[in-house]
């Protein structure tokens, strides 16, 4: 799946590919896995996720990445590793690309996500149930791009992260209210969104 996205505020020095990890064991088991305690060493790619990445790399339709940064969760690390191996690139773990922390819902069923998203729509600063606020996620995700803009020029950077953080980032970059991050189509596992330089 391919998406194209235009920055709302000015040109950038680099091109960015935002990639959601492939289908994972957490997806397969319908679990919320959002903390390093669970996510760093377990709940990697499912067989379906492995197949998604094999198909994606066999028919790559995007600019070739020159650099890969990834969330250090197992599912994102495994995803980034497959791409890095294919293109002969090194990996750079980036904790700011981690999954959004879902607080009290950690380890529970993913059917609880809509409760958090409903609260997000009313207040992107909320931390109900111990969840990480949308504003906090937006800040750290935008910080990754800001850092890269300061240090790199004319590169194509693949950022491998998670569904909620990537949708929040796209909402922030579009200049829309952060509470609207679920109003756009959900990013599917192993999907890539191209951010044009402008």
TrEMBL record:
SUPFAM superfamilies: Phosphoglycerate mutase-like. Pfam families: His_Phos_1 (PF00300). CDD domains: HP_PGM_like (cd07067). PANTHER family: PHOSPHOGLYCERATE MUTASE FAMILY PROTEIN (PTHR47821:SF2). This is Histidine phosphatase family protein. It comes from Billgrantia ethanolica. The lineage of its organism: Bacteria, Pseudomonadati, Pseudomonadota, Gammaproteobacteria, Oceanospirillales.
């Amino acid at each position: 799946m391919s998406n194209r996205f235009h920055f709302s505020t000015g040109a950038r020095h680099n091109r960015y590919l935002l990639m959601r990890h492939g289908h994972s064991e957490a997806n397969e088991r319908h679990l919320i896995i959002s903390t390093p305690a669970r996510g760093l060493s377990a709940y990697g790619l499912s067989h379906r996720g492995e197949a998604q990445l094999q198909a994606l790399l066999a028919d790559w339709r995007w600019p070739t990445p020159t650099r890969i940064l990834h969330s250090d969760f197992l599912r994102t690390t495994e995803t980034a590793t497959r791409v890095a191996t294919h293109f002969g690139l090194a990996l750079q773990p980036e904790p700011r690309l981690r999954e959004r922390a879902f607080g009290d819902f950690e380890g529970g069923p993913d059917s609880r996500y809509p409760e958090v998203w409903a609260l997000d729509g009313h207040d992107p600063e909320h931390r109900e149930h111990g969840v990480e606020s949308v504003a906090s996620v937006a800040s750290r995700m935008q910080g990754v791009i800001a850092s890269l803009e300061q240090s790199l020029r004319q590169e194509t950077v693949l950022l491998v992260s998670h569904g909620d953080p990537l949708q929040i980032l796209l909402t922030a970059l579009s200049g829309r209210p952060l509470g609207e991050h679920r109003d756009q189509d959900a990013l599917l596992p192993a999907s890539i969104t191209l951010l044009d330089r402008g």
